[in-house]
Write a structure and sequence with these properties.
Elements lengths: L11 H16 L2 H7 L1 E4 L2 E5 L5 E3 L5 E6 L3 H11 L10 E5 L10 E5 L6 H16 L5 E6 L3 H4 L9 H14 L3 H10 L7 H6 L3 E7 L22 H9 L9 H11 L17 E7 L1 H14 L3 E9 L3 H13 L4 E9 L13 H16 L4 E8 L11 E5 L2 H7 L4 H6 L3 H8 L2 E2 L10 E9 L6
Helix pairs in contact: 1-11, 2-3, 7-9, 9-10, 12-13, 14-16
Amino acid sequence: MADSRETPRPSVLRDQAQAIFMAGVRAADPGAAVRRHLAVENDRLQIVSRRGSTRSQAWSKVHVVAFGKAAVPMVRAVLEVVPRGLLAAPPVAVTSYENETPVEGAQVLGAAHPLPDLNGQEAARRVAGIANAAQRGELVLALISGGASALLPLPPEGISLADKVVATDLLLSCGADIGEINTVRKHLSLLKGGGLARLAAPADLHALILSDVIGDDLSTVASGPSVPDDTTFAQALKVFEKRGLTARLPASVRDYLQRGCAGEAIETPGSDDPVFANTGNTLVGSNRISLDAAIDSARELGYTVHVHSDRLQGEAREVAQELALACANLSPGKHAVLAGGETTVTLRGTGRGGRNQELALAFALHAELLELPADWVVLSGGTDGIDGPTDAAGGLVDAKTPARIRRAGGDPQALLDDNDAYRALSLSGDLVITGATGTNVADLQVILYDRPASGAS
């Protein structure tokens, strides 16, 4: 097969699509998000909510722990705002290896994602120890971002990390939904499901949360270490029982869940637990906040904005068809169709790519079939700069993308069928490469659609 990659011609639409996407990414900048919600006045730390209310107290010490893909910029922002004299000790930040960067005045620990490793377990013990050492009249300030569930594994005594991974893999392979998976995760962890709040009590705890969860359910972000959990051991065990998986569980996991059902292990703290009397949570960044920034950017560029969905879900190529059909019905004019969320991909082939690359390529092929009567571009990208097992954030396609792939010796439909969107968009020069952005609030889709009036030349 010939391999003569092309570069798409520069265009105003391509430049503007990238500008709108990056406006959304900047809105999720972890450092800026933290700085917006922290202030110091008369040596007292103030935590400012999105609505402007303030939590402030003369805390004698502030213990700072950060965990997730955005831990480094979040902890760096704290060090810019909070006087060193208020800090109990240098902050500890736990992040993925690709986001591990030294921070003066803090200790940064790398761990594996999405599969946890022993470094993550040791880091989780450090975080738990810091929270547990905090005293009444002190504050544990937790900086939480996406990816922390895998980065901070801390199974109860008697359960190895390997056994916990086996239990989780059983759920993933049997089609359990995210609610069921989180119910189990929280009952196999000392930090998740309100565990951090329990460890910190009687000290105060406040979490600044950068959400990677569509809908911003704080009990789901990082499996809710700072929020109540009203699920039970019985529900966790039932997840395995109803799928006939109990016998396949590692003995340590099965025994622990059964002991929990018998009241011989401590249940996760529910909404009526007194440990939450001194706990607060503030959402500082999310996909919706980023989508709102993209909307503002598109309007400033003169587009009529249509929000297709702020909770985009579904199979990537099916969503692409849905978006293409929506564009076909647009009236003449300059339109921006925007969406935020997280699609999925069912692997049928052996190629490389991610959900955003697949969505972009599928849209280009659907648009070709529909012969969309407009000048258009589509950018679908991950706000973390990483789409699947590739170095691309996503794809930026236009009406000539399929033709460029064919001229470079590729078959765009065959490549899509092989889940090889990365190669297809590499051939057409349509990959979006941003590098790791240090944040993660799911994905954004930007469609710019400039349809001339009927009869216009």
